[in-house]
Design a protein that fits this description.
With 438 residues, the protein is an alpha+beta fold. The protein has 14 helices and 7 strands. Strand 2 and strand 3 form a beta hairpin. The longest helix is centred in the first third of the chain and has 44 residues.
């Protein structure tokens, strides 16, 4: 908006200093905010399925990718909602100013307010034209800066995606997993970032004394051009550069820091709330709503109650709290980052056996790890591989006979693997508890 034009405008017309893109801003915010509201759940489902179906090495990169994607989505959603509200306030000011072209008649307010209160309010508010202009500028800043902050996540997503692709290729070519794979990934990222860090440090400390046409200057320019093509350049986000160069780096840093902290807190809460039993409200008379707490029915343990909820670490579930029929069907999602590691500790021979009988040996190993029990008594049933029809998650099915159980309440417990590669097997793990009724 041109700040140099000071000519008075007719209150029935938009000021010539009005942001020229206000109509497009409203169109984009209004048309996309409702579509964006559908994307977080789809993003959760996509990345959670990737995480729960990937090896330990790959899943270690899936979660950062999910955090970056959710940060960008939540930032865009918050930006567009705030922009719609601010643009609505601006439209209301413009419309009301056309009805009351004299603006705020402060003298009419003296009957209800003292003179000093009126003077202070008038000085802070300014005339109506200034009030409208500030509202216009505020809406445009929110739109541009919010979009720019979402764009900052694109480069980290590209880098992590490249790391995932290279790690997958490394494992597909027969590279050893576990710590060697993690060291290989760390070395790859070091080779990518370390030269760039050295270039930045060199330019900052000695760049003023290096002539652009000198050999060192040419090396610096070539290095920065190379990394610029990879996305390591301030020019990739002109929105934030435009804001920071006019509003100040300190103010921009605080804005980015507070926004990132808030968004990471929201994403982190979603990742751990279900398992940690975090929720809103104060219910001291009730047990915790963790998956390992007895005397608690959680919707995630029952297919009839789960709905469309997406959980980072999906727990075992049965069809319904009330069993109808001679068998209780239990589905246990198979998590490579946990079950595979547990099998490597408990039954490495069965895991490596790909000959005749190998499938049953691995399933029996998993059955021993799950340690299924009803009312504390072991349940010896064979497991079969299956797939969750709702999410596509692969896992295990146990058909547990329950016709001999007495009518009333019972509790099924399932022992999850820890995913740790040291210490006693499942020594520090509490079982899932799933109440049901016959």
């Amino acid at each position: 908006m041109d700040q140099n034009e000071g000519a008075a405008e007719e209150p029935t017309q938009l000021s010539r200093r009005t942001t020229p893109t206000w109509e497009m801003e409203l169109l984009i915010s209004g048309a996309t905010v409702f579509g964006l509201l559908q994307l977080p759940a789809l993003t959760d489902r996509l990345f959670f399925n990737m995480n729960n179906g990937s090896s330990t090495e790959i899943s270690g990169l899936v979660m950062p990718m999910w955090i970056y994607a959710k940060f960008a989505l939540l930032t865009l959603i918050g930006t567009f909602i705030a922009h719609l509200a601010l643009r609505g306030y601006w439209v209301a000011l413009v419309g009301l100013y056309s009805v009351y072209p004299a603006g705020i008649r402060w003298e009419k307010l003296n009957r209800r307010m003292g003179p000093h209160y009126i003077d202070a309010s008038r000085a802070e508010c300014g005339d109506t034209a200034e009030l409208i202009e500030r509202a216009d500028n505020r809406a445009s800043r929110v739109f541009g800066v919010g979009f720019g902050m979402a764009v900052t996540m694109l480069m980290p997503m590209v880098i992590v995606g490249l790391g995932m692709a290279l790690l997958w290729l490394y494992l597909a070519l027969g590279g050893p997993g576990g710590e060697p794979a993690l060291w290989a990934m760390t070395a790859g990222f070091a080779l990518l970032f370390l030269p760039f860090g050295l270039l930045v440090a060199w330019d900052k400390s000695r760049g003023a004394r290096i002539a652009p046409d000198s050999r060192a200057g040419r090396w610096l320019h070539r290095g920065f051009r190379f990394y610029g093509r990879l996305g390591f350049s301030r020019s990739n986000n002109p929105l934030m550069m435009l804001f920071a160069s006019n509003e100040g780096s300190r103010r921009t840093g605080w804005l980015v820091g507070v926004t990132m902290t808030l968004m990471i807190a929201v994403v982190g809460y979603q990742a751990v709330a279900a398992r940690a039993g975090w929720g809103f409200g104060d219910y001291p008379g009730l047990p915790d709503d963790r998956v390992t707490t007895p005397n608690t029915l959680l919707p995630m343990h029952y297919a009839s109650q789960r709905g469309d909820a997406v959980i980072l670490v999906p727990p075992p579930y049965i069809p319904d709290p009330v069993v109808r029929g001679p068998y209780l069907r239990l589905f246990v999602p198979y998590l490579p980052s946990r079950h595979t590691v547990g099998m490597q500790r408990r039954c490495p021979g069965a895991l490596a056996n790909r000959g005749d009988g190998g499938d049953r040996a691995r399933l029996d190993c998993l059955a021993a790890m799950l340690d299924l029990r009803i009312d504390g008594q072991p349940v010896a049933v064979p497991l079969d591989a299956a797939e969750d029809p709702q999410t596509g998650q692969r896992g295990l099915v146990a058909m547990i006979p329950v016709s001999a159980l007495a009518a009333g309440r019972h509790e099924l417990t399932v022992m999850p693997p820890t995913g740790k590669d040291r210490g006693p097997v499942d020594a520090d793990t509490k079982p899932y508890r799933i109440p049901f009724w016959r």
